[in-house]
Amino acid sequence: MIKEWATVVSWQNGEALVECDVKASCSSCASRVGCGSRVLNKLGPQTTHTLVVPCAQPLVAGQKVELGIAEASLLGSALLVYMSPLAGLFAIGAIFQTMFGSDFATLCGALLGGTGGFLLARGLSPTLASRHAWQPVILSVGLAPELLRVDNDADEPRQ
Fold it and tell me: What are the C-alpha distances in Å from 142 to residues 87, 103, 111, 139, 151?
């Protein structure tokens, strides 16, 4: 199970709207100067992902929840998104190479196969995303914001 903390935006009729912050992969790495990922992460917008998650327990805005998703569903979706265009690229490119015997035909076939694989992944993803096993679930719920109090009075002695 892959876990991530999220913040509740709203809760209505047994469904919680939660936001997860996008974390850059370079935040835990010691290589700062020569990291290409860090440069690319700075170029793009820092966004949040908003999800609707079923939850029978009433939640309040600002409350933290721990979300979980099965590893198999994450791997399956990654395989669909990355491998279907790649498989189409190689398969149709090889077929066009065999049929026409020219590099330009192979290039055209590879482009058609890659595009077809992308469209296949795009068409299958809503069907696969509707599966119950591929949905994130709430594993644990943190305290409501009004129940948590932090005192910053360091000058007062504790009794």
Answer: 44, 59, 49, 10, 19
